[in-house]
C-alpha cells in the first residue's frame, strides 16, 4: 500500500470510528510524521505521463508495467523502470490475472539443435480455435518465422483442410520463398501427409514433434498464447468476416509494434529489417 493510500486509510478510520491519529496510524502501519507530510504537487509532466499510462493500460490491457516502461521510452519519455512502476501502482493499474493451466507432460525429446540462424529457415505452424457469437467454431492456422518471430499468416475460416493448408503455404512461398524446414504437429488434425508432400515438392525438410510435447514447438505455442491472451479471450466475434478483419489487424500490430526481449526490444519487423540491412551482400 502506498503512503497516499495509507493516509486515506487513516483518515477513514478517524472519521468512521473516532479514534485518535496515533491509534489509526498504528493500525494502518504508518508513522505519524509521514501522515502529516504534505505530498509534493503533481507536475504537468507527471500528469501527462500518468494520462499516457492510463491510455496505454486501456489500449493494451494484457501488457504490464515492464512493457509499459519500454513503450514509454520508445514514445520519447525519459523515464526509468522504477518511476513507471511507482506511477503504475499509484494509478491502480494492473493486468487481470488468469488461472494458470495445468502443465502438459509427454515423452518428447528436445529439438534445440534445430534452432534457426537466419530468416526463412524454419516456419512453425499450428492450429488454434475460437467461436463466434452464434457458437460456431472458427479455425485459425498460425504460421510464424522462428528466427524473426514474425507472424507470416493467420488463416481464419470455419474449417481448414489439407488443400487450405497447402494454399496458405503456397501463398507465403510466393512472397517469402520456401523455408528450409517446416515444424508442425504430427497429429491427424494437421493433415501431416499433405504438408510433408508440400515440403518435399518445395525442397524443404519437415520437423515433426512428438504427440503431447508442445515444448518442441515452443515458438508457435508462445505465439498462440499471446494471441489467446491479448485478443481471443477479450473479444467476441459476431461473424467470420469480423474475426478475419480483427485478427489480421492484430497480426499486423504484433509484427509492427510488439517488442521482443530476445531481439533487444525490437519488433519482429524492425529485427527482420535490421538483419537484412546488416547481412545484405556487399556491393563490389
From TrEMBL:
Protein name: Integrase catalytic subunit
Membrane-crossing residue ranges in chain numbering: none
GO biological process: DNA integration
Listed SUPFAM superfamilies: Ribonuclease H-like
Function in brief: Involved in the transposition of the insertion sequence.
PANTHER family the UniProt entry points to: BLR2054 PROTEIN, LOW CALCIUM RESPONSE LOCUS PROTEIN T
InterPro entries the record matches: HTH-like_dom, Integrase_cat-core, RNaseH-like_sf, RNaseH_sf, Transpos_IS3
Domain Integrase catalytic: 115-276
Amino acid at each position: 500500500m502506498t503512503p497516499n493510500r495509507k493516509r486515506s486509510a487513516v483518515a477513514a478510520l478517524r472519521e468512521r470510528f473516532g479514534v485518535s491519529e496515533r491509534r489509526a496510524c498504528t493500525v494502518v502501519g504508518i508513522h505519524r510524521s509521514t501522515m502529516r507530510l504534505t505530498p509534493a504537487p503533481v507536475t504537468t509532466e507527471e500528469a501527462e505521463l500518468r494520462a499516457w499510462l492510463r491510455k496505454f493500460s486501456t489500449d493494451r490491457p494484457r501488457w504490464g508495467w515492464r512493457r509499459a516502461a519500454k513503450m514509454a521510452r520508445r514514445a520519447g519519455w525519459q523515464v526509468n523502470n522504477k518511476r513507471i512502476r511507482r506511477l503504475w501502482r499509484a494509478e491502480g493499474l494492473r493486468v487481470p490475472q488468469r488461472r494458470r493451466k495445468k502443465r502438459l507432460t509427454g515423452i518428447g525429446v528436445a529439438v534445440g539443435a534445430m534452432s534457426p540462424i537466419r530468416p526463412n529457415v524454419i516456419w512453425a505452424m499450428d492450429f488454434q480455435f475460437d467461436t463466434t457469437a452464434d457458437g460456431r467454431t472458427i479455425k485459425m492456422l498460425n504460421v510464424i518465422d522462428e528466427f524473426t518471430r514474425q507472424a507470416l499468416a493467420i488463416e481464419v475460416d470455419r474449417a481448414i483442410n489439407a488443400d487450405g493448408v497447402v494454399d496458405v503455404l503456397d501463398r507465403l512461398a510466393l512472397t517469402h520463398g520456401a523455408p528450409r524446414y517446416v515444424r508442425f504437429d504430427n497429429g491427424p488434425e494437421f493433415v501431416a501427409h499433405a504438408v510433408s508432400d508440400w515440403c518435399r515438392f518445395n525442397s524443404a525438410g519437415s520437423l515433426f514433434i512428438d504427440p503431447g510435447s508442445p515444448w518442441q514447438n515452443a515458438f508457435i505455442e508462445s505465439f498462440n498464447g499471446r494471441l489467446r491472451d491479448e485478443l481471443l479471450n477479450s473479444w467476441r466475434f459476431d461473424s467470420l468476416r469480423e474475426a478475419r478483419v480483427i485478427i489480421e489487424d492484430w497480426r499486423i500490430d504484433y509484427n509492427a509494434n510488439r517488442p521482443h526481449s530476445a531481439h533487444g526490444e525490437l519488433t519482429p519487423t524492425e529485427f527482420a529489417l535490421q538483419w537484412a540491412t546488416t547481412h545484405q551482400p556487399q556491393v563490389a
